[in-house]
Amino acid sequence: MNTTETLNAMTLARLSYYNLAMVRQLYDAAGSATAVIDNRNHLSDIVPGASPRLAELLRDCGTMRARAEEEMNFCLAHGISAIDLSSDSYPHRLAQCDDAPLVLYYKGTADLNQRRVINIVGTRRSTAYGADLIHSFIADLTALCPHVLVVSGLAYGIDICAHREALANGLETVGVLAHGLDDLYPNAHRETARAMVSQGGLLTEFMTRTKAEKINFVRRNRIVAGMSDACILVESADHGGGLITADIARSYDRDVFAFPGRVGDPYSAGCNNLIRDNGAQLLTSAETFVKAMGWEGDSQLDKARQQGIERHLFDDLTPTEQAVVSTLEANNDLHLNMLATQSNIPVNQLTAVLFELEMRGVVRTLAGGVYHLIK
């Protein structure tokens, strides 16, 4: 780590809170935070038309520099990494965004530049429907793509549900905070946050002693969106932070998906409207998501198909699996609902059984949710 560059980036970041566009323009033109600081007495030579007020603040940046040094000492004492924009550890996807923070503070173990990164966002007032969607989606996604980093905002509702399901399924998960790493909001999620530090991490652009003010939550949404390949919206009212994140993700040319909800449900209106207006792709399952993202080559299911894994003998099947096979032997190519009726297996249980059979090369999915027994 280049400590001088990081300290200078931390100093500039204090200014960027109020004029991020100009500070980032200076940074890009000069090539580094150190170059900006070193040339602070003639900024107009770097960027003609640089803000006189910004130039004045930079000329007398001693107080901000002292604050940066204080923060650096706190980081060193508490196992926190200060990651400036020039660092290889900085999220590469986020670095491509014009409004990316100059510095991030990170406590955790996950690689922020994993091959596959998604964010899952939505309402703070989630329902059992949203929780069930996340439970099934992350469990199935883990089976298909076992190395995906799940990002969210550690808020109530959809966020915390996504973090907890990721932890339960062995996926790494990162929470992006709207305050410094000397505190945690909401405090009720402290135990989950503690688990995330060793199976993911906590990330923020804010120094310690920063309060979780409303504007900070909006600012952190751009980090959630920018560091991910795709944004997945699960339950949202007509207005809310999840929709803001989805909108930012689209502006960054990220893929945006939304689970639909029942017409008239207040916390599905945002998702339904977004799908209707082509602001998000309709999402119904982890498998459709993997296909839409072109991640099939990474999926365990795809590998099983490519390798032509031999089907287990029928006497290796569980009684429930045998019931499915027997039903398809009698009448092949059945839709999920018809298969559930004829095999007398509840749909929620049948879905898991069919996935296992597909992994083992016993059945395969046809268009329209029809299941075919491979003979």
Quickly list its features.
single chain; 375 residues; alpha/beta; nine-stranded mixed sheet; 16 helices
Give an account of the 3D structure:
There is one protein chain. The protein is an alpha/beta fold and 375 residues long. The protein contains 16 helices and twelve strands. It has helices at residues 3-30, 33-38, 52-59, 62-77, 92-95, 128-144, 158-168, 190-198, 214-226, 241-251, 269-276, 286-293, 300-307, 319-330, 336-343, 347-359, and strands at 81-84, 103-108, 117-122, 149-152, 173-176, 200-204, 230-234, 255-258, 281-282, 334-335, 363-366, 370-373. It has a nine-stranded mixed β-sheet with strand order 1-2-6-5-4-3-7-8-9, sandwiched between helices. Strands 10-12-11 form a three-stranded antiparallel β-sheet. Helix 1 (3-30) crosses helix 4 (62-77), helix 6 packs parallel to helix 7 and helix 9 packs across helix 10 (241-251). The longest helix has 28 residues, at 3-30. The N and C termini lie far apart (59 Å). The model is unreliable at 308-314 (pLDDT under 50).
The gross shape turns out to be: elongated
Structural class, by secondary structure, is alpha/beta
Q: What is the string of helix and strand elements?
A: HHHHEHEEHEHEHEHEHEHEHHHEHHEE
Beta-strand percent range: 5-15%
Low-confidence stretches: 308-314
Number of helices: 16
User: Helical proportion?
Assistant: 40-55%
Structure described in brief:
Helix content is 48%, strand content 13%. It has 375 residues and is an alpha/beta fold.
List the helices and strands and how they pair.
Elements (H helix, E strand, L loop, with lengths): L2 H28 L2 H6 L13 H8 L2 H16 L3 E4 L7 H4 L7 E6 L8 E6 L5 H17 L4 E4 L5 H11 L4 E4 L13 H9 L1 E5 L9 H13 L3 E5 L6 H11 L3 E4 L10 H8 L4 E2 L3 H8 L6 H8 L11 H12 L3 E2 H8 L3 H13 L3 E4 L3 E4 L2
Parallel strand pairs: 3-4, 3-7, 4-5, 5-6, 7-8, 8-9
Antiparallel strand pairs: 1-2, 2-6, 10-12, 11-12
Helix pairs in contact: 1-4, 6-7, 9-10
